[in-house]
Write a structure and sequence with these properties.
Layout lengths: L9 E2 L7 H9 L10 E4 L7 E7 L2 E7 L12 H10 L9 E5 L9 E4 L19 H19 L17 H15 L9 H10 L7 E3 L8 E3 L7 E4 L6 E3 L1 H9 L9 H6 L12 H12 L7 H23 L11 H19 L2
Antiparallel strand pairs: 1-2, 2-3, 3-4, 4-6, 5-6, 7-10, 8-9
Helix pairs in contact: 3-8, 4-9, 5-9, 6-9, 9-10
């Protein structure tokens, strides 16, 4: 199934980066490189950009922020590099080859890493995988179990305590995302005040402190093209930190569109979680609770948090689009999607009688 290996789609230069300067900087640090590589971009992603660099006898991945004005804490290349480096012997991540933190070198920060040759599942489950519902369920279990494996890493035993602030994560997230949403308000945006107030008033204590990914989805997971039940890599560590594992799972499930979700949710789908055999969100929680022993009897807080957090991310991007700071047409609907997420969160609160 080598034809299913994830491939870039567009052949062009890296946006905002001087590729001649990038190539020269890399030649000074990585032996055996010569000339300027060909460059093409991988699809997907509304945040950091991912490119394939290809020389005649070598290829690697380049990651960089998008051009234009950005939030101060967003698009953190250094964070990605720290996590990839720290987890290199503990968890399936690509090897980092070099990191340039000086935007003066080539016009922007970037790093390069190993290319993992594998399958990345995006909106639809490829028919060429030949998965029936039972096999699809096994695949779903394998991916969810990889997140569980991350959450079960012993941060003390592995010296990972430097990767985040640890305790107090729930409170920091509610305060931080609420502040960011209010700062990104535009005309016509939902105010989310009911949601933010409920999250503030009902936040639980942290259930644990562990390594969390922050954006764990099928399209950030690389599967072995010879055995798609095997995860060979997890990508996109831009939002990783030390924090509460149930908050991490709630964030992931904001993207988990299941087969019986309403039409508006289906229009948001970007991974094949609606395919026959995929777990529902409730079944994901059940599997997670059984594997970890954590109490998942009431998960509404984490799911509402995940939807709100997603709305903030979309609203921040929409703010940039609305003010002409980015012109990517893919962002044109993000403001209305954020409004829909407010409606969905309010419906969840209504069902609780909150």
């Amino acid at each position: 199934m080598s034809d299913l290996i994830d491939q870039p789609e567009e052949a062009h230069g890296a946006e905002g980066l001087d590729m001649q300067a990038v190539a020269g900087w890399l030649r000074g640090r990585l032996p055996g490189l010569s000339g300027t590589p060909g460059i093409s971009r991988f699809p997907g992603g509304a945040s950091n950009l991912t490119y394939l660099l290809r020389w005649p006898d070598r290829e690697m991945i380049l990651r960089c922020p998008p051009p234009g004005r950005k939030a101060r804490s967003a698009h953190d290349m250094g964070r990605e590099v720290r996590f990839l480096t720290a987890l290199a012997s503990l968890y399936p991540v690509p090897e980092v080859f070099a990191h340039c933190a000086d935007p003066g070198v080539a016009g922007g920060e970037f790093y390069v890493m190993q290319r993992l040759q594998g399958v990345i599942l995006r909106k639809e489950l490829p028919a060429a995988l030949g998965l029936d519902p039972r096999a699809t369920q096994r695949l779903c279990h394998a991916v969810i179990d990889k997140l569980i494996e991350l959450h079960e890493l012993d941060i003390g035993a592995h010296g990972l305590g430097h990767l985040g602030r640890g305790g107090g994560y729930v409170q920091r997230q509610i305060e931080g995302w609420s502040r960011r949403y209010r700062a990104a308000m535009t005309s016509g945006a939902a105010d989310f005040e009911r949601i933010m107030g409920w999250l503030e008033a009902n936040q639980p204590d942290d259930v644990a402190t562990c390594v969390i990914h922050g954006d764990f989805r099928f399209d950030n997971v690389v599967l072995d093209h010879r055995d798609p039940m095997k995860v060979i890599g997890v990508l996109d560590w831009e939002m990783a930190t030390l924090g509460d594992p149930l908050m991490d799972l709630g964030s992931s499930l904001a993207y988990w569109i299941q087969a019986d979700d309403e039409v508006a949710m289906q229009l948001m789908r970007r991974q094949p979680t609606n395919a026959p055999g995929m777990l529902t969100r409730a079944e994901v929680w059940q599997r997670y609770g059984q594997a970890t022993g954590r109490d998942v009897s009431d998960t509404d807080f984490y799911e509402i948090y995940g939807l709100f957090r997603l709305a903030v991310i979309l609203q921040q991007i929409w703010y940039r689009f609305h003010h002409g700071q980015t012109t990517n047409p893919a962002f044109a609907s993000f403001g209305s999607v954020a409004v829909y997420l407010d409606t969905r969160c309010q419906a969840m609160l209504d069902r609780r009688g909150a």
